[in-house]
Predict the 3D structure of the following.
Amino acid sequence: MNRASKKSIKLAAVLTAVLMLLASLPFTAHAAASIDAGKSGSLTIKLAYGGTLLSGGVFELCKVADISNYSAPRYKLTSAYSASGVDLNKLQNTADMTAAASVLTGFISGATPEATLTTVNGYSSKQGLALGVYLVRQTSSPANYTTSLPFLVFLPMMNAESGEWEYDYTAAPKISGQWYPGEFTQISVQKLWADEGFESERPESITAGLYRDGTLCATQQLSGANGWKYTWTQLSKDFSWTVDEIEVPDGYYCLVESENGAYTITNTREKVPLSGPISVQKIWDDDNNIGNKRPESITVGLYCDGTLCDTQELSASNDWSYIWPGLDLSDTWTVDEINVPDGYSMFLDQPEEGCFVITNAAGKVPQTGLLRWPAPVLAAAGVLLIGLGAAAGRRKKHEK
């Protein structure tokens, strides 16, 4: 073996020894330690736009989850939010966080905020917060500024660069910008109840949600204390705003109507668990009232299993239509015209389940439908035909 080969063998032996020595030394991976359950956290809100620190921003902090495992962090929703179906352990990115915050906001009415922060010169802080996950919702903004979307804060929060847990966190919620009075709008909501005779079963309050471009961004409890109505102001016209009821009370169904930013939520009492509407529409086939014989109104009757149980007047003021809501679908429901106007015949159609159409035709008999002849007249005509047939038979026999 030459000298060069001996040197190579010695070098390899030295390197192997060094590697074995390093392997025997303690090695600490760059990973975060377990969360310290004995610590508390803090949250600071920084509210600014374009470098300007803003005062008057109001934020609510609601704890939505506790830490269930401190060594390999796992989170469990608190009782007020457990029905939301959100799994905080599966959030992967910012979009997931935003979506989860939006869903959880719908359950905020049943929880009490841990704290309310109001910014002064751009900042507001809360110390001594129990560790867990918080939903932060802005409830008010400085004049001429929009509110931020709800967001989640984990205490402690993992520092992506150092891999360490940070127990004191500063959030800088994004606001949409500075707007001027002429570019703002407001959205109002009013709750109405159609539950005569069932007032005692009406809930004490309901929760209305305000949606910005389809995303829930604010909720408001409506009750007798505020007249079952509320108005959101300082809303930017650059977004589409809608309102809906977060959770319809049991035994009711909900109708939401709007006009020029004013929303009305009507809760109608379902009289039985299996219920639905019956509708009627009046159509006139009289060449646009050419004979000037069309009455100003007609009366329709609602029949349950053949028994008249309600009547309604149809006219131009209600577009010649009416809907009976919350009827027991296990019964048989029909609709009929009480008195057909003189000079008209009546055609009754049911194009689909629960939908009745009454057509009054002037001066002609509809080609299809129900033609109402008095029973005595039909009976007399039948007897007459039978008599004529019998007479004809006798005559033919006599001729033979």
Summary: Confidence is low (pLDDT under 50) at residues 3-31, 366-378. The chain has three helices and 26 strands. The first strand starts at residue 41 and ends at 46.
